Amino acid sequence: AQKVTQAQTEISVVEKEDVTLDCVYETRDTTYYLFWYKQPPSGELVFLIRRNSFDEQNEISGRYSWNFQKSTSSFNFTITASQVVDSAVYFCALSLNTGFQKLVFGTGTRLLVSP
Amino acid sequence: GAGVSQSPRYKVAKRGQDVALRCDPISGHVSLFWYQQALGQGPEFLTYFQNEAQLDKSGLPSDRFFAERPEGSVSTLKIQRTQQEDSAVYLCASSSPGSEGQLFYEQYFGPGTRLTVT
Asked: How confident is the model at residue B1 (pLDDT cuts 50, 70, 90)?
């Protein structure tokens, strides 16, 4: 079975602080995909990144960066110089590379960025 | 083109009523997923369609939940005799095989339908 754990329920930071959202996953499969989604108050899930299990290279996109470490089964997400618009619930998710690739989500981390 | 749309956006039902939630996927998308998101939780898989075929319904919580996609495009999630525990946001997502050799099919989510059972 697959499982995603986001231990941080809620994080509060002040604008311009850096913040890291943790994600730990479990799967017995060797081929899988990991994701981060953002869910603003409007409710729609916004895709941020996909990473496959064979690619452990870290990625940076603007103020966002992701650290994938297979040795610790973690896929952490860092926002640099946070902004109020970053306030949302962030979900980490996992899918296998077989079948129809349904997503298994974590419980989410609510990020509150205050001015 | 247009994204995934869902209607209604909000639905209030009295316990025991039947409800029907609609999903319009992105045109041409073969795959369609339904997820249930309880308050404060992550989305959980309910069921999957490939065209009109329902290939997996393992996530449906009870036989009161029924989904269909008769023509392989629009899908309806029906909940009979609603209970308070059915209160949640119901998300629809669609995806489609891309170019030949592509290994992963991106899921595009709709805005969800928030169901409140009183």
From this structure: low
